Amino acid sequence: RVPAFVESVLESRHKAESGFSLGDAAHVVAALEQLIFDAEGALLSRVYTERRLPAEQSLSRTEVGVLLEAYVVHWMVGEDAFYARMLLANQSMLPDALPHWHHLAAFARGQADALEHRRRSAPVASRAAGLARAG
């Protein structure tokens, strides 16, 4: 969706006739941000469902790590959800299938560790920021 949208804007009649102003560019950027946010939110929701993780409750550090690793696999694979599920079911294939998998997985685990640290060091602020839920 995003590449087609960008192409349609850049090849539009408006561009040829009058060009784009800074305001036009800001609107395009805002629209792109929303499209990306929507797509990534849908992907995250799908990963929550596939991993059978409760979206309405706080996750443990381990669950966050599992969620983030699965999200990265789906993100790297793209639209091929079957292939992503196959890789997640047989994780020994990940290093061969995805370039730099060990670094990506370490990054995901590091993000889970950072979230856990923020939750423990400032629990009230974490709940207020949506990083944790009571219970």
Q: Can you tell me about this structure?
A:
It contains 8 helices and no strands. It has helices at residues 2-10, 13-18, 22-50, 61-77, 81-89, 94-97, 101-121, 123-128. The longest helix has 29 residues, at 22-50. It is globular. The protein starts with a helix and ends in a 7-residue tail after the last helix.
Primary descriptors:
mainly alpha; 8 helices; 135 residues
Task: Write a compact overview of the structure shown.
Helices cover 75% and strands 0% of the residues.
What structural category arises from helix and sheet content? mainly alpha
**Portion in strands:** under 5%
> Radius of gyration, rounded?
19 Å
Shape: globular
What is this structure's SSE topology?
Layout: H1 2-10, H2 13-18, H3 22-50, H4 61-77, H5 81-89, H6 94-97, H7 101-121, H8 123-128
Helix pairs in contact: 1-3, 3-4, 4-5, 4-7
